[in-house]
Amino acid sequence: MHKLRSLPFAVLPWILLTFQPLTAQNTGSPQNQPNIPTFQVTSTLVFLDVTVLDKQGHPVVTGLTKDDFKITDDKKPQSIFSFEAPETHVMSANPGNHNPEGKAPVTILVLDLLDSRFQDFAYIRYEAKKFLMAQPALLTAPAELLVVGNDSLEMLQGYTSSREDLIYALDHLPAALPYKEMNGAFVWERFAQSIDALQQIALQNKGVPGRKNVIWVGHGGPGVFLDSAVLTEPVVEQLKAYAHHTTNLLVDSRISLFVVYPGLSVNRSDMSISGMDSTIDLSDDDPFAGNVNFGLFANETGGKVYYNRNDLAHLIARSEQLGSEYYTLTYQPSDTAADGKFRRIRVSLTNPNLRVVTKAGYFAPNPNAPMNARQKAMTNITEAATATVPFTALKVSMQSMVRHPDTRSLDMVVQTQDNHLLWQAAEDGKNKATLLLAAASLNAEGSIVASRVERVRLSTPLQDPAARAALVTPMAITVRFPRNATHVRVVVESEDGGRMGAVDLTRKAIDAAPAEPTPEPQLAPHRPQYQTPASSAPAS
After folding, report:
1. What distances in angstroms separate CA 287 from CA 48, 218, 295, 347, one per listed residue?
2. For 80-102, what is each residue's pLDDT tens digit?
3. How is domain 375-512 classified at the architecture level of CATH?
4. pLDDT tens, position by position, 46-63
5. Which pLDDT tens digit goes with each residue over 474-491?
6. Contact (Cβ atoms closer than 8 angstroms) between residue 155 and residue 452
7. Has domain 102-330 been given CATH number 3.40.190.10?
8. Which residue, among 262, 307, 313, 310, has the nearest Cα to 131 in the 3D structure?
9. Considering the entire predicted model, what is its pTM?
10. Closest Cα partner for 51 from 344, 360, 345, 328?
11. Where are the domains of the chain?
């Protein structure tokens, strides 16, 4: 497959003119794109979605023009290239004209099971439903619903304007114990999984026009202090690069992160809390020089952190409001050096009684900065889920499939047999490998309407490479199959080796699968991390 290198959308230090056929199968947008060739011009253009607040914190949506704003990039004044007032982002009165040209911001509601206690998540779920019930039956802009779980990021419902579909997906979310949050030994794993989730959300939405508001309901990933006395210098630099890459993915996708805590202060300093209020001014230095936490990601993307136990639904609605009433400014940076340094953006107003909330900056491209294997694997599998070409580097086949019409979901077991897996010796004498397993339900236009991504850890005592190559590895995955889904693609990738295989299921094959009621969820405190591929049980 011919793969185009992923390039920043909002900030590019060069001008690129390409002739590229845009097809609906190659975009994650909730809108249908015309399947015709078109010229695409990408320039050094920075998009700023700016919320203006008065002294009482209320959004100001009228009375301002381009001349009221001033922008500096790395302390250098910038000329405003274009200006859009908030009324251009309001939905059309025509109920059939949703999100025209991406003007109205879409909402991505993320429920954090990975980092929240069981009782907190029950409250999060209740308040999320309370928020959805308060919305009109036909939403003013598309929204989607995701959950970050113990082992996966799952899209319960892709972009939809139907409140009923979102509530249905939430009501059929199985109960689970957040065993990783309950056991402090998983702090580093939760940290990586949480940021991986941010990266995947950005990757899936890079083709969606306009602003996207990610409302992360829960504690957020653990904060990590970049202390050279505790961590080695190479590890510190890797973590900084990880945070820089994530920031640019979010900024390039025009995503603003709002973190809504269920009643916990964000000023605690222990690693279990991502504690930094997004209103803190971090000067012009690298914002991730001292630590990495979700409050910083909110600050860097023009979002905000809220915490209040009393009315979580109100804070979700407040986040949606702040993310919907905004001005859009663009400018072309005068400094286009590809040095990888942080560029602080500052927006001010001629009226001193008003203040702005916008993204705090971005990291200039660094052509010498390598993308680590984890980031490359996440990018590859996200692109492969919506691709129309076959992947055969790994041998993947469907072992079994069961439909659950009551929850609109599919239980699938796929299997892979290949000698290209990169096995590594472990301290217990076994050999272990890691795979990425993704399932995506797609509609007729090729857009994702539900998905799930998991990391699968394999383990075997076999030492002979030939014997390992003969192993058949079964892997189980469940994915929603909403009403507008027409087909499913399952992708398996070797996380270290980068080889991929895929299997596609047509609607005819899915309808022919046996139908059974959804099994009652079992509140197991812990799923096994490793399975022996030689066994008949699906891998974890």
Report:
1. 19, 23, 11, 17
2. 999 999 988 865 444 444 444 55
3. Sandwich (2.60)
4. 899 999 999 988 899 999
5. 999 999 999 999 999 999
6. yes
7. no
8. 313
9. 0.81
10. 328
11. 102-330, 375-512
